[in-house]
Amino acid sequence: MPVSTNDMFYSRLPVNQIRLSELLMEEHLFYKIPADWHVLITDVKRSTIAVAEGLHETVNLVATGSIVAVLNIAYKANLSVPFFFGGDGATFIVPPLILDDVLKALLQHQQNTEQNFKMMLRVGHVPVTDLYANEHLLQISKLKASALFSIPVVLGDGLSYAEKIIKGEDYMLKPLAIKEDDLDMSGMQCRWDKVKPPQNFDEVVSLLVIARSGTKQSVVFKKVIDKLDEIYGEHERRKPISIPRLKLKVTLKKIGAEMRARLGGYNAFYLFRTWFTTMLGSLYFRTKKGKTYLYQLVELSDTLVMDGKINTVISGTNKQREKLQAALDEMEKNGEIIYGLHVSKESVMSCYVRNMNEDHIHFVDGSEGGYTKAAGVLKKKIFA
Q1: Under the phi-then-psi rule, with left for phi > 0, alpha for psi from -120 to 50, and beta for the rest, what region is 187?
Q2: Radius of gyration of the chain (CA)
Q3: What's the rounded Cα separation, in Å, for the pair 311 and 306?
């Protein structure tokens, strides 16, 4: 099927090279998602329980796998699609051209996840036209987040509404015939140990912020981002990933989890080949190419997600976090926001490496289930 102008909507969006707080104030730089596109959501059911049982890295791995599956399909179709990592799941907005292929791949991933990890991955989609029919907003822009990385920035409650539908008890996904070759997980990697904060920082904060109804979302988000910039420094300075703290985790257990997520089962050749090449990784990272890759890894770390709420993982000091909490508490008291926050001593990272030359993305969460635990705090406040 040929690619249409409509399918290329996100691929052709201009990348804005301004600060996020400035972008949020420029309404003309946000575009309405085409009505025939679809919102897809994956979500590990009972992720809070899994995290409490010490399975937070597996939860992250499953969420990362859903992104890898979708991006490989989009890549083959020469398309870019917006995606949002959420720790225990992911959200995508895709054109109709690849909808069926994406759903089949995610359903195969769902099946593999249940067989290999005894976890249930929820998969669902909602047509964007349904969001508009129910008067929900979904606008998008692109932001240059670092020298090598641009991110989608979404305003509106459309993705939140789609999530409520898909997580509803009566939601049913239309059955599709699937087969193993529907799923391509090439490029998926999970080989880094937990990452301690950069030097002079002592903690990692996983933060979720939503704007209360009745407030102007963009204005409230700008206020939060400005406060983060003021307390922690701009986005690059508060990243929890730094080259000196990176350390490969060369264990068969770690590589075995990657193998089962990527291949859907056990493969002795893959396991020992990957273990051996990972053992050699420390040598590679001493070379010029290896050092370049590590620099790119930090630049391409996905630590800020804007999907109609603020999701971010940052590093700093206890004093900085206390200042941030005081500011957020004041905004919460004034009826502007609701927020959830979790503090950990490390971050965790899973990766999508299509090739070692700028074509890789690294998904970051706070250790011990940072995003999942922050979401738990947020939900308690919402339903209090």
Answers
A1: left
A2: 20
A3: 6
Distance CA 263, CA 105 (A): 13
Range of the domain at 127: 15-382
Total tally of structural domains belonging to the chain:
1
Instruction: Answer whether residue 311 is part of any domain.
Output: yes
Q: Are 208 and 310 in contact (CB under 8 A)?
A: yes
Tell me the pLDDT band of 174, cut-offs 50, 70 and 90. Answer: confident
| 3 falls within a domain | no
Amino acid at 57: E
> Distance between CA 309 and CA 190 in Å, rounded?
27
Residue with tokens 């009566």: 170
DSSP state at residue 171: -
SS3 266: coil
Show the tokens assigned to 247: 């350390």
The whole-angstrom separation of Cα 74 and Cα 194 is: 30
**Does the CA dihedral 236-238-242-246 come out positive or negative?**
negative
Please list the residues that pair with 364 across neighbouring strands.
349
Residue 79, phi then psi, degrees to nearest 5: -120, 150
The token pair that represents 203 in the structure block: 């903690």
The DSSP H or E segment spanning 154 is strand 150-155
The burial class, CB within 10 Å (0-12 / 13-18 / 19+), for 113 is: buried
Q: Could you tell me the end-to-end alpha-carbon distance of the chain, in angstroms, rounded to an integer?
A: 49
Taking Cα atoms as reference points, which of 175, 238, 234, 174 lies closest to residue 206?
238
Structural domain contains residue 29: yes
- What pLDDT, in 10s, does the model give residues 294-306? 999 999 999 999 9
In this predicted structure, what is the pLDDT of residue 48? Answer: 92
What would the pLDDT profile of 112-159 be if each residue is shown by its tens digit? 999 999 999 999 999 999 999 999 999 999 999 887 889 999 999 999
Q: Classify residue 254: in a domain, yes or no.
A: yes
Rounded Cα distance between 363 and 151, Å, is 13
Contact yes or no for 102/94 (Cβ under 8 A): yes
Distance of alpha carbon 384 from alpha carbon 32, whole angstroms: 33
Strands (E), 174-228: 188-189, 203-211
Q: How far is CA 82 from the centre of its chain?
A: 10
